Amino acid sequence: MKRISKLKSLFLLCVTAVCVLNACNAGDSDHTPPSQLPEASGNVLPATSDPDAPEAPAASSEPQAPEQEKILIAYFSWSGNTERMAAYIKEQTGGDLYEIIPLTPYPTTSYTLWGESAREERDNNVRPEIRDPLPASTVAQYDTVFIGFPIWWHTAPMIIGTFLESYAWTDEVNIYPFFQGASNNNSEYYTNSMNFVRTCAQGAAVQEGLYAAASNTSAIDAYLAANGFTE
Ligand SMILES: Cc1cc2nc3c(=O)[nH]c(=O)nc-3n(C[C@H](O)[C@H](O)[C@H](O)COP(=O)(O)O)c2cc1C
């Protein structure tokens, strides 16, 4: 009897020892030292069990391509020709369009009836107000700005001055003027318009302009290619 109770005690001792060891191992799994955790990486996407899910992109040590340049195409158009040009430039470059609209619209009647008032604006270097002007924080997101307009009285309409003088430009912003008129082959109009844009866009890198009929898509194509926007 004594021997049986001795064996019983031994058996209980063994069971207790096994339990204690298991308990210790279970506790360890919560306390793995940091050095033994899988290496942390911000680029690793969480694993997925969905077999149809797209594979995570392979981590690469290649340098990232520089951010694509952001293009704004701002334009003023009274009868739609500059607007067509702007739409074509958007199509070719993928830029964002913004129409400069006067707070007080110009009449829609023949400009022989009201054109004199636009000449007075030019002579007095007036800055007509813009309806819903773009916030400076929005314009600051663009490093390329196309600015389009019709020739008015041998130069740019004064509202182009309002737009350009609304922002603090730096030479990191390239400005590309594009314009057209009843005549599209007048060096004086070109020089006047470019001088006006340069004066109003102080600080920006104003590039040579595009002066061609709105329907002259080959001239627009050549200009965009020469400035590296298209091939
Ligand atoms: C007030 C006014 C003045 C203009 N002055 C000239 C000018 O000096 N030279 C010219 O070639 N065209 C002149 N034009 C014609 C416009 O430039 C031409 O019709 C242009 O295609 C209009 O562009 P839009 O449709 O974008 O407004 C003038 C038009 C207006 C309304």
From TrEMBL:
Q: Where is this region: Disordered?
A: 29-66
Q: What is the annotated signal peptide range for this record?
A: 1-23
Q: List the residue ranges forming a coiled coil, or say none.
A: none
Q: Which domain of life is it from?
A: Bacteria
Q: Where is the Flavodoxin-like domain?
A: 70-181
What segments bear the compositional bias annotation Low complexity? 46-66
Q: Name one GO molecular function term.
A: oxidoreductase activity, acting on NAD(P)H
Q: Which InterPro entries match?
A: Flavodoxin/NO_synth (IPR008254), Flavoprotein-like_sf (IPR029039)
Q: Does the keyword Lipid biosynthesis apply?
A: no
Q: Which UniProt keywords apply?
A: Signal
Entries under PANTHER family matching the protein? EXPORTED PROTEIN-RELATED, FLAVODOXIN-LIKE DOMAIN-CONTAINING PROTEIN
Q: What is this protein called?
A: Flavodoxin-like domain-containing protein
